[in-house]
Amino acid sequence: METNTGLLAKISVKSDIKLLPFILSSVKSIAINYGLNEDDADKLMLITDEACLNVINHAYRNNPEAFFDIMIELKFGQFIIGVEDRGLPFDFESGDKDKNKGFGLTIISLYADEVRFINLGKNGKRVELIKYLSPRLRSVTCDKNNGEFFEEDKYGNQKGAPGIPFEIRLMKPEEAAELEKLVYHTFGYTYTEFFYYPQMIKDMMKEGLLTSMIAITSDGEIIGHLCSQKAYIDSKVAELKAFMVSPEFRNRHIGSELNAKLIDYEKTWGLTGFYSEVVTLHPFSQRELIGLGGRETGILLGLIPDGISFKKIKEKQSTRQTAVFYYTKLNPEPERSVYPPRKHRRIIEKIYKHGNISRVTKQAQPSELKYSKDTVIDVKIIQDIETAFLNVRYIGKDFSKSLMIHLREILLHKTEVIYLNMPLSLPEIQHLNNDIESIGFIFCGIVPEYDNGDILVYQYLNNIEIDFKSIIIESDFGKELFEYVSNQYRDTYIPWEKS
Length: 499
Prior knowledge:
globular; 29% helix; 3 domains; Heat Shock Protein 90; ten-stranded mixed beta sheet; seven-stranded mixed beta sheet; Aminopeptidase; alpha+beta; 12 helices
């Protein structure tokens, strides 16, 4: 089924609760006709109901003459309901006392695969409720031990499956279902949701957003995978992600070949660089990436949820796992001016020097501080990894208040880790570090060339434990950066342990 069809329907309705049955029946009917199963269609209908009620009761305060829009979209294997209004922002002071509103947010968190809050500026705001379309693969056998992995060694239990030939090449869109089997054999059902939905992978490959390099046997079994994913089609950087090798084929140096082939391919096509997140449970992946030119630019405490298992590497973790953020330079990047906050300027300059990234760090002058009328922050919540991203687009004088509102909104979703991405090209951010850190965010690094510029990344940890003893850092600079971020964590979250 072709699922990258875009907008299916747009409904403009008055803010009248009597119209909800019409909206909900339309949502369910369209969802089922375009491939969503009955159970997921019911869940989509329920969370659409909650989102619409929030507009009617809170954004418009029961004004039946106001209008709002419902957009029904199908894109990249995702069924998306967009609810747009030009009413009041989310009212947390009343929301704290309104148990029904809190219940509604809980329902949305439980039944949506992703939730996004998007500031439309003068055009109001948009909430996106997302359900993944294609079902997960269920054809691979599990044993009876609480769904733990059943690993059948069809190669005679010989390490590295010697003698079985394979080829390294680009994956074709029609091979997405075969890739899903590899995901299962490597992680069971503990990996990021996206890779269990072949249609999403097909659509993104056809759009040019996803490039997958695979190791494949002569009988068509995918035994290794690595991909680059762009945020949008014209991006000059991509995320290097989803490296996996079938357990039977480890120790065959498949990872090295996948990395080298994909890097050569993207370098030839003019990509400026890769950014990637690498686990700290073991040094192998870090060592591999450093050997290919990767350089540390950040430490992401508690990035990886505690449910993800790595077969034959280590047992499943009971706490969230930390990752090292790397940038791999492929081609020269444009020279840019950046405005790091004074507190973190020295470590940021070290990161740029370590990564051989050409930047001019500047002190913001009063004449450069041109605040927007309103702060604009886009919010994305990914339910399966209990993580949220706050992407700052414009900075107004209301920044601190706006950030607090969004933070409280996300905390109502019981989100465990929250990332705040600030454009380093904006002079105003140089004066906001105290406001950001005073409410619990800590510095964790930078991402070069992300969205046509660098971003400064902060993170907020919502009552989660970090197991520092299990963290393994490979390089000397990585250890220096890890110590810096760890000190930020201790100063903010456990100041009584400061030595």
